[in-house]
Write a structure and sequence with these properties.
Helix content is 52%, strand content 10%. It has 475 residues and is an alpha/beta fold. It starts with a helix and ends in a 9-residue tail after the last helix.
Length: 475
């Protein structure tokens, strides 16, 4: 079907493509809501991507739900080739690419208008903190930023800031990909010694998923246990459920309302692709995710001060929320939040999509046993190796598409050892099975240790972290 859509692109009008795109977007949403088989969803998403490319080629405009094409046709010079944007689709709910190496992050930086994390910024962070940069920075896993230099300027001038990150609790068990922002946020909190707020968007999951309100809240509490097990300090960290905190904090709700007043329906349709058939809860939710970016949402921590800037470490698919937030901030008298963006953690089957909590074989879960970890990696981890041992020894493997090597870049601390593994694999000295063994031996003790720490997290511990209170900072 994709080929036929491409062949017909020259004869169909932009409006006809717009209508097809809208219908296909609704079809993808229906498949996801109905928990259709992953293969069926992938086919539908691939068609959606192709339609977007064809629409841009015909209309000269990027597709935005709820925004039909303008009447003025684009000239040939002003319309970039389809390859210009590639086959990547990145928004808060969908991440897809046809490239085995994954998303083209250089193009994503240009598309989103953020700034690349260059060596100079990493070196400055090391000078300011007196600490070696985290491996996620050294290896480009956190690769993009907004206003990080401003944060460092403030820190050097003895001005405080705070951290904000979050989690959408859609299931009891978290997978390894979910840990990425928390591992990095823990390092940031340790080296800068600053407050941290963690939002659990159980309300969002109720609005988007086929889940009960009670299940969403229960998942939030269970996910909080995994987050706490990352080693956060209860005296410096506040974790909150939207369903709980919204009714407790007038400061938080006041900020939600301020944001809602300054964002129009057309804007959220353009940013998030909402349609007329989406419930009003979805349309209003972005303001709730934006509100923790402002210090007055936490009067118990910041004593009502409105000038404390926020730094948000998150995956880059969350950036649309905070582009909106940064646009609103000066209009309601607050500093713009700064951001650090991470790449996506690939599924075991390859870097075309991020991991999915709904597909147990796409992910290494934090509840997996050592045997399950071994079996999943051996059976499902996409290999960049050759078809035969002889070919592999002669030509070597492709580390850029090999999932086991990708995972090691996230979790193996030793830079020299990682580079040696890359060289051995690409030269053919290291076989795929041996590379997978390296990953298994890295992940098994890491997850076992996490499980042991989680066992120590009691309901009382969770209550302490999730109770609104003053932290060990003076504002």
């Amino acid at each position: 079907m994709t080929d036929s859509q491409t062949d017909g692109a020259a004869t169909e009008s932009p409006m006809e493509f717009y209508e097809k795109l809208t219908a296909q977007g609704e079809a993808v949403k229906a498949l996801k809501t109905g928990k259709a088989p992953k293969e069926e969803i992938d086919v539908a998403v691939k068609l959606l991507l192709q339609l977007k490319l064809d629409y841009k080629r015909v209309s000269g405009q990027d597709y935005k739900a709820g925004c039909p094409p303008t009447d003025s046709p684009a000239s040939g010079e002003s319309v970039p080739a389809a390859a210009e944007d590639g086959d990547d689709l990145v928004d808060p709910w969908t991440v897809a690419t046809s490239n085995a190496k994954g998303i083209d992050y250089e193009k994503l930086i240009v598309r989103f208008g953020s700034s690349k994390i260059e060596a100079e910024l990493i070196e400055r962070m090391e000078r300011v903190t007196g600490q070696k940069a985290h491996r996620f920075l050294r290896r480009g896993i956190f690769f993009s930023h907004r206003d990080m230099h401003q944060i460092l300027d403030a820190y050097e001038n003895k001005k405080s800031f705070y951290l904000y990150t979050g989690r959408g609790p859609s299931s009891e068990a978290m997978h390894m990909g979910h840990l990425i922002p928390f591992i990095f946020t823990k390092w940031l909190q340790d080296v800068f010694d600053i407050p941290l707020v963690i939002q659990l968007t159980d309300d969002e999951k109720y609005l988007w998923k086929d889940l009960t309100l009670e299940d969403c809240h229960r998942y939030a509490v269970e996910n909080a246990k995994d987050i706490i097990a990352c080693g956060f300090d209860v005296n410096k960290t506040f974790i909150f459920s939207d369903l709980d905190y919204m009714g407790m904090s007038s400061g938080f709700y006041r900020n939600v309302v301020k944001i809602q007043k300054h964002v129009t329906f057309n804007q959220v349709k353009g940013i998030f692709g909402f349609t007329d058939s989406d419930c009003i809860g979805k349309i209003s939710f972005p303001a709730i995710q934006a509100a923790p970016s402002f210090s007055t949402s936490f009067p118990q921590i910041f004593n009502g001060r409105k000038d404390i800037q926020c730094l948000i470490p998150c995956a880059i698919d969350q950036d649309p929320y905070f582009r909106m937030t940064r646009d609103v901030a000066p209009r309601i008298g607050y500093p713009k939040p700064a951001l650090l963006h991470s790449t996506f953690f690939p599924a075991l089957q390859g870097a075309q999509t991020k991991m999915s909590a709904s597909d147990p074989n796409s992910s290494i879960f934090l509840t997996d046993t050592a045997k399950q970890i071994k079996n999943k990696i051996n059976k499902h981890a996409f290999s960049g190796g050759r078809d035969t041992v002889e070919e592999h020894r002669k030509h070597g493997g492709d580390a850029d598409v090999d999932v086991s090597f990708m995972y090691l870049t996230f979790f193996l601390e030793d830079d020299e050892k990682l580079e040696q593994i890359r060289q051995d694999y690409t030269s053919g000295a290291l076989l795929t099975g041996e590379l997978k063994k390296c990953l298994i031996e890295t992940l098994q003790p890491m997850i076992t240790q996490h499980q042991e720490r989680r066992k120590q997290v009691t309901d009382e511990t969770v209550k302490q972290f999730m109770t609104p209170r003053k932290l060990d900072f003076h504002f």
